[in-house]
Amino acid sequence: MPGAEEVYRLIRQVAPSFAAKLQSAAAASHNESELRTQVAHHIQELAEIEAQVDQAAAGLWGIAAAELREVQRSLAELSA
After folding, report:
1. Quick one: how far is CA 43 from the chain centroid?
2. N or C: which end of the chain has fewer CB within 10 A?
3. Distance of CA 3 to CAs 43, 64, 67, 72, Å?
4. Could you give the 3-state DSSP secondary structure of residue 64?
5. How many domains in the chain?
6. pLDDT for the residue 64
7. DSSP assigned state of 3
8. pLDDT of 3 above 70
9. How far apart are CA 1 and CA 76, in angstroms?
């Protein structure tokens, strides 16, 4: 089971690199379409990382997989 430090470390590791990737994509893109494609790719990566953080946090707080899916489903409904 992951500890709070592991969850915190994951978030601290990911945030700066994600921002750097977006800045790099903006600097390297030659047009808006290319930039949108690159940003969409990086957002997909972020979604995968979010899933890892969700799993780690669920483990930290003892949330079962089914409960985590329900929380994620509820959040998706609120975001829609």
Report:
1. 8
2. C
3. 26, 16, 19, 21
4. coil
5. 1
6. 94
7. -
8. no
9. 26
Residue pair 1/59 in contact by the 8 Å Cβ criterion? yes
Task: Give CA angle at 50 (9, 59), nearest 5°.
Answer: 65
List the domain range (segments joined by +) for residue 25: 4-79
Owner of token pair 């990382």: 49
Measured in whole angstroms, how far is the alpha carbon of residue 30 from the centre of its chain? 26
Type of residue at 36 = R
Instruction: Give me the phi and psi of 47, to 5 degrees please.
Output: -65, -40
For residues 19 and 47, give the distance between their C-alpha atoms in angstroms, rounded to a whole number. 14
Amino acid type, 66: A
The per-residue pLDDT for range 33-75, each reduced to its tens digit, is 888 888 888 888 888 888 888 888 888 889 999 999 999 899 8
Q: What is the DSSP letter of 62?
A: T
